[in-house]
């Protein structure tokens, strides 16, 4: 049996490649660990298994954010725009009950947190659900301005719960969690969006009229002062953080 010996230059090349991949992994690891997803629905105090009632997102391995507010993926960031919805179970929840989202880890970045809902037509497990001007905001945790600087109540929190509006009519809905990380938002496209959508069947609903209604994508241009903002160097006339998107519908 022949034996192949590596020349000194080959050894050097192998060592260089190993060093390169080691350095690459060392650099990438903190970036991945600093990012997050929202794979779990909180319903009745119980936390679902990953991606059971929440559409699996395209970043379920990389944890990378969305940065374009105009792409179709900005809606729910599904792994597959056509097939993920049908592969996801729909959870039954009551209007007036408390539900929520749990992140893959605590939110590492400072930012603005919100939850939107949309009537799901023809059904929550349909890829057509939420594709029109059907979205309304039901919850938010905005940054707080005090003593010349912003603080971020959603930072370092992992689980978020909210009340499904009591007057929300019964039917199938999508609930969309969104965290806008603002640490690099001083230039256009620098804001990072972490997104997931849960599929819900709301029962025991009321007769309210949710609104204002917006389209997603379409709700933002990316130039909103709450999205394009240098949180480390605020304008001299800054008085409060301007939440992007519509007002919250309380129901």
Would you write up a description of this structure?
This protein is mainly beta and 251 residues long. It has one helix at 8-34, and strands at residues 40-43, 46-47, 91-94, 98-102, 111-119, 133-141, 144-146, 149-151, 159-163, 171-181, 192-203, 214-215. The strands form three sheets. The chain has a six-stranded mixed sheet, with no helix packed on it. The chain has a four-stranded antiparallel sheet with strand order 2-1-4-9, with no helix packed on it. A hairpin with a 2-residue loop joins β7 (144-146) and β8 (149-151). The N and C termini lie far apart (79 Å).
Offer a concise description of the structure:
With 251 residues, this protein is mainly beta. 11% of the residues lie in helices and 27% in strands. It is built from 1 helix and 12 strands.
Task: Provide the fold topology.
Elements: H1 8-34, E1 40-43, E2 46-47, E3 91-94, E4 98-102, E5 111-119, E6 133-141, E7 144-146, E8 149-151, E9 159-163, E10 171-181, E11 192-203, E12 214-215
Parallel strand pairs: 3-11
Antiparallel strand pairs: 1-2, 1-4, 4-9, 5-6, 5-10, 6-12, 7-8, 10-11
């Amino acid at each position: 049996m022949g034996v192949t010996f590596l020349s000194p230059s080959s050894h050097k090349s192998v060592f260089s490649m190993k060093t390169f991949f080691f350095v690459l992994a060392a650099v990438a690891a903190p970036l991945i660990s600093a990012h997050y997803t929202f794979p779990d629905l909180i319903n009745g105090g119980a936390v679902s298994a990953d991606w059971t009632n929440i559409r699996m997102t395209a970043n379920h391995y990389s944890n990378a954010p969305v940065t374009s507010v105009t792409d179709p993926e900005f809606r729910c960031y599904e792994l597959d725009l056509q097939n993920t919805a049908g592969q996801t179970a729909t959870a039954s929840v009551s209007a007036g009950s408390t539900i929520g989202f749990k992140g893959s880890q605590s939110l590492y970045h400072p930012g603005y947190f919100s939850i939107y809902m949309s009537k799901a037509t023809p059904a929550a497990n349909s890829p057509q659900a939420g594709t029109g001007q059907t979205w309304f905001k039901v919850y938010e945790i905005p940054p707080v301005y005090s003593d010349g600087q912003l603080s971020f109540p959603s930072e370092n929190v992992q689980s978020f719960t909210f009340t499904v509006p009591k007057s929300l009519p019964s039917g199938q809905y999508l609930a969309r969690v969104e965290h806008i990380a603002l640490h690099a938002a001083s230039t256009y496209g620098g804001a990072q969006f972490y997104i997931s959508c849960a599929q819900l069947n709301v029962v025991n609903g009321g007769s309210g009229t949710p609104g204002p209604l917006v389209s997603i994508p379409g709700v933002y241009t990316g130039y909103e002062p709450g999205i394009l903002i240098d949180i480390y160097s605020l304008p001299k006339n800054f008085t409060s953080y301007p939440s992007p998107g519509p007002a919250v519908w309380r129901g």
